[in-house]
Amino acid sequence: MTFPPAPRINPSILSADFVNMERDLQRISGADLVHVDVMDNHFVPNLTFGMQMVERVQQTSPIPLDVHLMISDVDRWGPGYAELGAASVTFHAEASQNPVLLARRLREIGARAGVAVKPGTPIEPLLEHLDEFDQVLIMTVEPGFGGQGFMASMMNKLRTVSEEAHRRGSNVWLQVDGGIAPGTIEQAAAAGANTFVAGSAVFGADDIDGRIGELRELARAHSHTP
Ligand code: DX5
Ligand code: ZN
């Protein structure tokens, strides 16, 4: 599968209308990937949907799926999301016994393997294993809900991964998720992010296509390689 070049804008369907999902998937067809937040009311204090819904989104979406698993026991449940055909599956390091083994399993099945860290989780232990992952997701809010404020204090963490990726000549995708909008995406792009999740900023816009284009242009204008 070939993927769109950076900067990538991935709208989060957490902010879509759950009973009009097919319509809302069409509305974001100009985006790069569709970000699908799976929450189990255990790893995070909110509940969305599971494999049955993600399979229908996979069958319905005009653009590839970027699944973000906010679930416990992800070593057991994560591979199923790759098996149903999601292009990218990102799990939380905090929820896995062995992130490297899980990433290898996801790649074996044919998905891009992503690892995510909550704001309080340091990135350093993962850096030596960077080549095992296709994406690193730096959360810029506490996971669980859309519409929260962007944590600018995460930019140091993002710069740390970005510098290490550059040192290794890696083309790992650096993703940010939480509070991304015009006014915050610039900082994330400048700190090295190349893949941007936006929920409320996209679905809350009057002109959804226009907002996706605006975010992409702002990211492009502020991105730089360290
Ligand atoms: C939050 C989710 C995000 C959420 C972002 O835990 O992982 O993907 O949809 O929403 P906004 O862009 O509104 O902060
Ligand atoms: Zn997410």
From TrEMBL:
Listed cofactors: Mn(2+); Fe(2+); Zn(2+); Co(2+)
Keyword terms of this UniProt record: Carbohydrate metabolism, Isomerase, Metal-binding
Pfam families: Ribul_P_3_epim
Pathway field: Carbohydrate degradation
Residues that hold a divalent metal cation according to the record: H35, D37, H68, D177
Residues at the active site: D37 (proton acceptor), D177 (proton donor)
Reactions listed under catalytic activity: D-ribulose 5-phosphate = D-xylulose 5-phosphate
Gene3D superfamilies registered for this protein in UniProt: Aldolase class I
UniProt-listed Enzyme Commission number(s): 5.1.3.1
InterPro entries (UniProt xref): Aldolase_TIM, Ribul_P_3_epim, Ribul_P_3_epim-like, RibuloseP-bd_barrel
Binding sites annotated in the UniProt record for substrate: S12, H68, G144, F145, G146, G147, D177, G178, G179, G199, S200
SUPFAM superfamilies reported for this sequence: Ribulose-phoshate binding barrel
Cofactor note: Binds 1 divalent metal cation per subunit.
GO molecular function: D-ribulose-phosphate 3-epimerase activity
Family annotation (HAMAP family): RPE
Similarity remark: Belongs to the ribulose-phosphate 3-epimerase family.
Cited NCBIfam families: PRK05581.1-4, rpe
PANTHER family to which the protein is assigned, alphabetical: RIBULOSE-5-PHOSPHATE-3-EPIMERASE
Function: Catalyzes the reversible epimerization of D-ribulose 5-phosphate to D-xylulose 5-phosphate.
Protein name: Ribulose-phosphate 3-epimerase
Organism: Microbacterium amylolyticum
